[in-house]
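Database export, one record per block. Field names are fixed; values are copied verbatim from the stored entry.
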Amino acid sequence: MSLSAIHILDYAAVAWFAACYFGYGWAVNHGPLKGKVGLVAAVELRRVQWMRAALHRDVRIMDAQLMTSLSSGTAFFASTTVIVLGGLAAMLGAADNVKIRLEQLPFVGDTAIVMWELKIMFMMALVIRAFFKFAWAFRLTHYLGIMLGAMPAGSAEDLAQGERHIAKTARLASIAATHTNDGLRTIYFAIAGLGWFLHPLIFMAACTWVLWVVYRREYRSNALAAVGDSDV
């Protein structure tokens, strides 16, 4: 395969990645998947249930423990992306050695060193995006803990105020979860991006596979059947 043909496939692979990655987000927020009940929407209803139950609890130790668990999870992902980013930076400094070793494989084509560096920087951009998503979600869980601590008592005279606070707290929890989900989806596609180092067609196939996995888990998974039942 000629070098020019590989360049054409590289452009096609990037275009297909953009269609899968950004197209899915558009379909969920503005396109045909908007309004369709998925796992995120089902869990959002459960968050309202959680906050309503917390309103009527005298002791909210369990709620604080749940908040700690959510916060530690996003902190783990944020710190992991920093480690991965450091590894990619080291890989960028040794791009020549990585290129030589990988091109010894029979199905890896000969590519200019500039293209290898662009591929690494592409991976770094995805990891950086994921870091900001996780870091902001981690910060939002702190605000969510403050909202939970400020929740009024569940007495009858405070019921209207409590319902407003429930809606705001559940909404903040949903925003934090949305950023976490976006960060995870970015990591999924970054893993697919590893296939680009082997061949652009592998990258395109991996993006297609990730897109199907994300869609299936959101709208056709057993988790959705378990969480989104009709008694909500």
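Remark 1: Residues 1-5 have pLDDT under 50 and may be disordered.
Remark 2: The radius of gyration is 22 Å.
End of record.
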